[in-house]
Every structure is written in structure tokens, then in C-alpha cells.
Design brief:
Layout: H1 2-5, H2 17-27, H3 32-40, H4 46-61, H5 68-73, H6 84-106
Helix pairs in contact: 2-3, 2-4, 3-4
């Protein structure tokens, strides 16, 4: 099925990006780790594809689907600008922003 969406071997053209990301997620919706791993192996726009598929998996399954070994593999730098703690803080900041935006819409 993937070959029907991608005319460039294992890479995807920008025009196919959304279709391939959705196909990867929807064909593996109950197996988010597998969906992310397949997206990461796509080539071409694989980093962006992996981010989109991971975001879709997170929207459906929350953070509990992320294997502990992935969190454990994230390292922190000494200044705290990158790594596991930075990823967690960015996620929390995004959640706070979303909550503020929802409050503004409701008022």
C-alpha cells in the first residue's frame, strides 16, 4: 500500500507527505510504537514524518504509549537547553498554552 502513495522508492515527495503520514498512523493506530518506527524508516522527510505520526499517536493515546526505553535514551545537557527535561518542559508549556487558549474561547 505504501508503494501506491510513494513514487520515489522509500522516500516521499512533499505533495505526498500528509497522505503518507495519515496512512502510516491509520494502518497502525493500535500500535503507535510501530507507526513511529515505520515513519522513521521512510527516508526523505523521515524526521518530519516521524514527528507528525508521533503527534497523532500522542493525540489518540496520550503519553503512556511511549516506551520507557525511549525516554531513558534522551539525555540532558549540562545547561538544560536540550534533552529529556527540555522535551518535557516544552510539552508542559504547550499544554498550558492550549489551556489558556481554551479559557479565552470559552469566555
Amino acid at each position: 500500500m505504501l508503494s501506491l502513495l510513494s513514487f520515489h522508492g522509500y522516500t516521499t515527495a512533499a505533495s505526498e507527505f500528509a497522505a503518507v503520514a495519515l496512512m502510516l498512523f491509520l494502518t497502525n493506530w493500535g500500535k503507535p510504537e510501530q507507526a513511529v518506527m515505520v515513519a522513521a524508516s521512510m527516508g526523505g522527510h523521515a524526521p518530519a514524518m516521524t514527528q507528525v505520526v508521533g503527534a497523532l499517536a500522542g493525540a489518540l493515546h496520550g503519553k503512556d504509549w511511549v516506551p520507557a526505553r525511549w525516554w531513558d535514551a534522551l539525555e540532558n545537557d549540562e545547561e538544560g537547553y536540550t534533552g529529556r527535561d527540555a522535551v518535557i518542559e516544552v510539552g508542559r508549556a504547550m499544554a498550558r498554552l492550549a489551556a489558556v487558549e481554551l479559557d479565552a474561547v470559552e469566555q
